[in-house]
Amino acid sequence: MRSLARKWWLLLITGLAWVVFSIIVFRFNYTTVTAVSLLFGFVVVAIAANEILLAALTDGGWRAFHILFTGVFVVTAVLAFVRPGDTFGALATLVSFVLVFRGILDITAAFMAMNLMPGWWVQIITGVAELLIGFWAAASWQVSASLLVAWVGAGALLRGIGGIIAAFQVRHVARTGRA
C-alpha cells in the first residue's frame, strides 16, 4: 500500500489533466467539439475492450452477444474519431432524450416511494426540472449543444478536483501512515 501511496503524484497529474480538459470544453469552439468527441471515442474503446474481455470469459450464446457489441462499439469509436462534428451533434441530441427519460423515471420513482421516503417531493421537483430542460433542449440544437458542453465540462472539472483532493489525501497517508 505504501508503494502505491508514493505515486500520489499520478493522481495529481490526472486531476490536473481533467481540469485542463474542462477548460478546453468550457471554451466552446471547434476544439470543444473535437475534445468531447475524442473523449467519447476513448470511452467507447474502453467499453469495447471490456466487451472483448467478457466474450473471452463467457460461454455459449452470451459470447456472441459480447462479440457483437464489441463490433458495435469499435465502429462507434472509429466514427467518433473520424467524424467528430457528427459525433458531437448526435451526443447533443441524445442529451435531451436522456433528460426526458431521466425526468420520467425520477417522477415515477418518487410517486412509488411517496409513503416510504421522506422528502419524496424533492425527487418530483428534480424530475419535472429534468423533463422541462429535456424538452427545451429537444426544441433547439443550440441548447442541446450548450447543455452537452456544460454537462461534460462540469463532469470533467469535478473529476479533476476530486483527483487533486485524492492525490493530497494519498500523499498525507504516505507521509503519516494514517488516514
Give an overview in words:
This protein is mostly helical and 179 residues long. It has one domain. The protein is 88% helix and 0% strand. The protein is built from seven helices and no strands. The protein has helices spanning 2-5, 8-26, 30-57, 61-82, 84-112, 120-139, 141-176. Helix 3 runs antiparallel to helix 4, helix 3 packs across helix 5 and helix 6 (120-139) packs across helix 7 (141-176). The model has no long low-confidence stretch (mean pLDDT 86).
How would you concisely characterize the structure shown here?
This protein has 179 residues and is mostly helical. The protein has 7 helices and no strands. It has helices at residues 2-5, 8-26, 30-57, 61-82, 84-112, 120-139, 141-176.
What tags apply to this protein structure?
about 180 residues; mainly alpha; globular
Q: Report the span from N to C terminus.
A: 13 Å
> Can you tell me the number of structural domains?
1
Q: SSE order in H/E notation?
A: HHHHHHH
Query: What is the mean predicted local confidence, pLDDT?
Result: 86
What does the secondary structure layout of this molecule look like, with pairings?
Elements (H helix, E strand, L loop, with lengths): L1 H4 L2 H19 L3 H28 L3 H22 L1 H29 L7 H20 L1 H36 L3
